[in-house]
Design a protein that fits this description.
The structure is a single chain. With about 150 residues, the chain is mainly alpha-helical. Helix content is about 60%, strand content about 10%. It has a single domain, classed as Rossmann fold. The protein contains 8 helices and 5 strands. Helix 5 crosses helix 6 and helix 5 crosses helix 7. The longest helix has 19 residues. The protein is globular and about 45 Å long.
Length: about 150
């Protein structure tokens, strides 16, 4: 089954960031479409617009990257998948009970982990320590981009 990509792993596929080389290498080694849900899509689009706000990219570049995202969806490089939100949020609540008080997990991190489990993903691709803890609790394997980057 596909790996689940945290938004922090997806954005570097489109914008040069510290994990861009690592996540690109991982994606290329998998040779499969990346499953995407609406939460990830909103987070990615918003992250790009935040880069404009912060002066990290200009509006023209942002529009070009957003166009690339749309194109990748149309080409099937990104595969928009449905989420059963009621089940995902109930699972997120379960994960929260198990790890948040000990590890400080954020809500979006545990929601992503819950969706990965719902989709039958075996691994989550991330560099977020709190999300890694939540994913371990949920029984997922971890692809830590810091390790991938270190092997390049």
């Amino acid at each position: 089954m596909h790996s689940y990509y945290d938004t922090g792993a997806l954005v570097p596929l489109y914008v040069e960031e510290i994990f861009s080389d690592a996540v690109t290498a991982y994606v290329e080694s998998r040779d499969e479409a990346i499953a995407l849900n609406l939460l990830q899509q909103v987070e990615m689009e918003n992250a790009l617009r935040l880069k404009v706000f912060r002066g990290e990219m200009d509006d023209r570049r942002c529009r070009a990257v957003l166009d690339m995202l749309r194109s990748n969806l149309e080409q099937g490089k990104l595969n928009l998948r449905a989420v059963n939100w009621i089940d995902a949020l109930e699972e997120a609540r379960r994960i929260s009970r198990g790890v948040t008080a000990k590890r400080g997990c954020r809500t979006l991190d545990i929601i992503h982990v819950a969706i990965a489990g719902q989709w039958g993903c075996k691994a989550i691709v991330t560099a977020d320590d709190r999300q890694i803890e939540a994913a371990r609790f949920a029984g997922l394997s971890i692809v830590d981009l810091r390790d991938v980057r270190g092997k390049m």
